[in-house]
Design a protein that fits this description.
CATH superfamily of the largest domain: DD-peptidase/beta-lactamase superfamily
InterPro entries: Beta-lactam/transpept-like, Beta-lactam_cat, Beta-lactam_class-A
Number of domains: 2
Largest sheet: 6 strands, mixed
CATH architecture of the largest domain: 3-Layer(aba) Sandwich
EC number: 3.5.2.6
Strand content: 15-25%
Number of strands: 11
Number of helices: 10
Distance between the termini: 86 Å
Pfam families: Beta-lactamase2 (PF13354)
Enzyme class: hydrolase
Strand order of the largest sheet: 1-3-2-11-10-9
Family: Belongs to the class-A beta-lactamase family.
């Protein structure tokens, strides 16, 4: 009886060892693979671009990727509003802020550039949820600066990025100790790989908690600036995204809930020769071209050609 028990235990141990070995081999087999065909298409498309460009693309289900200068640091411009969003939700999770919390707009907060709150009447009432919506949907600068303050400032947000293992994703503006780097990158900085990762973590429910990631995802779905990458996907397909623009740098990060599975990409540029603010800006035109290539590569059964622009 004792020998049978020992043999049974040995057999069970062997099965466990084989199962562990199989799982390890499966995990190794699931390692990221470079999508060489897509990379060739991307490299051809960006050749001749008059500026510096970085790109990271990943199909989350197929675990295939393309990286071109993906770990190079670029200015975020308004894409920095995504880390600010995370900072605000960390305060909500800590019961220091509430989405329904009311605030009074002070006309002294008026700030140029994109957004609507600069046109609010002095002493107008608003709430935190509206401010978040304005920041993300209309890339509102007034609410973004205000929300950065409410999140605890740039240093607090940067510490959160470090915890998410995004060491190059930083808020520079109005952040003590980062004045010199602000002169180089402006409001914020990131890399194509890191910003893609931040979007992926939100999608996977890994930023703060699944509940808060879910809410952030919902805010990121509504975009007024939809004439770059978003114009290259069928309108019925769900996306989350954020654009960023300053004179010499244009960027965009997008996660697409596509039929074949989610894919994410981030396209960042800097030192751009074309600093125009027109639809035909070189970097913005190239971004649309790249988004078109990415969609039709991953979704050949749902190939899409955008309609002419409505003016």
């Amino acid at each position: 009886m004792g020998n049978r028990l020992i043999l049974s235990q040995i057999f069970t141990m062997k099965k466990s060892f084989l199962l562990i070995a199989f799982c390890c081999l499966y995990t190794i087999g699931q390692a990221q693979k470079e999508d060489k065909k897509l990379k060739a298409l991307i490299e051809t498309a960006i050749s001749g671009f008059q500026g510096d460009i970085g790109i990271y693309i990943q199909h989350l289900k197929k675990n295939k990727y393309v990286a071109v200068n993906a770990d190079t640091i670029f200015p975020t411009a308004s894409i920095v509003k995504v880390p600010i969003l995370v900072g605000v939700f960390q305060k909500i999770a800590q019961n220091e802020l509430k989405l329904s919390q009311e605030y009074i707009y002070d006309a002294k907060r008026a700030y140029g550039g994109s957004g609507l709150m600069q046109f609010y009447k002095d002493s107008a009432k608003t709430d935190l949820s509206t401010m978040i919506s304005l920041m993300l949907t209309y890339s509102d600068n007034v609410t973004s600066i205000w929300l950065q303050e409410l999140a605890g400032g740039g240093a607090t947000i940067n510490a959160l990025m470090d915890k998410l293992n995004l060491p190059n994703t930083k808020v520079n503006s109005r952040t003590p100790g980062r004045e010199a780097i602000w002169k180089v990158y402006g409001w914020g900085q990131t890399t194509p790989r890191e910003m893609s990762k931040l979007f992926t973590l939100i999608r996977q429910g890994k930023v703060i908690s699944p509940q808060y990631s879910d809410k952030m995802y919902r805010y990121l779905k509504n975009q007024y600036y939809n004439e770059r990458s978003l114009s290259q996907f069928p309108p019925t397909v769900n996306t989350i995204s954020k654009t960023g623009s300053v004179n010499a740098a244009r960027g965009e990060v997008v996660l697409v809930n596509a039929p074949s599975g989610d894919f994410v990409f981030c396209i960042l540029t800097k030192n751009n020769k074309d600093q125009s603010w027109t639809y035909d800006n070189e970097a913005e035109t190239l971004t649309r071209k790249l988004a078109h290539i990415i969609w039709n590569h991953f979704e050949p059964k749902h190939a899409f050609t955008s309609y002419p622009r409505i003016e």
